[in-house]
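USER:
I would value a second opinion on how I read folds in token form. Give me a protein, with the fold worked out from its sequence. Write it directly below this note and I will take it from there.

ASSISTANT:
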Amino acid sequence: MSSSLAVWSAIAAALLTVQALLLVAIPRLLLFLSNSDSHALSPLELFLSQHFAISLGVLAFAVLFNIPSAPSPLPSPVETVPTQPLLYPLTIGSTLSAFVAWNSDDVGTLASVFFFFSLTISLWGLWEIIFANSASFSKTTGTDKHTSSFIFGNKAAASSVKKNLKTK
């Protein structure tokens, strides 16, 4: 891995974090920077700045924690399943965005639309984190070990397949 890529990732993450913090902490800065004659942000502008800040924070988190590293010359003893690099940050950001949208009532239906889409991404991401690729497979039979005591007696479960292998 080149060190310039790591430095770029750290600086990009820092700049995106500063932008996100400014949008969250001082949303009126948008009025100042835009040379607007208005004295206050509209509820729509405030809502969109909050969600844009969450998106910038997620992007900063993803850039910082997905810096490529040099591959190890030794093989890994534990085989890991590759995942989407944005799974964790986007799930966390979508959960936060859904919460903010749920508590925003001054932008009408837009808050409901943001809430629905953010909640869908959030719940699916949480399901992926908790349940996907979490099964352990038997080395001898190749079946899922967690389904042997399934409520209806799974015939393809590891214990059933192993019993059939022993009887043959």
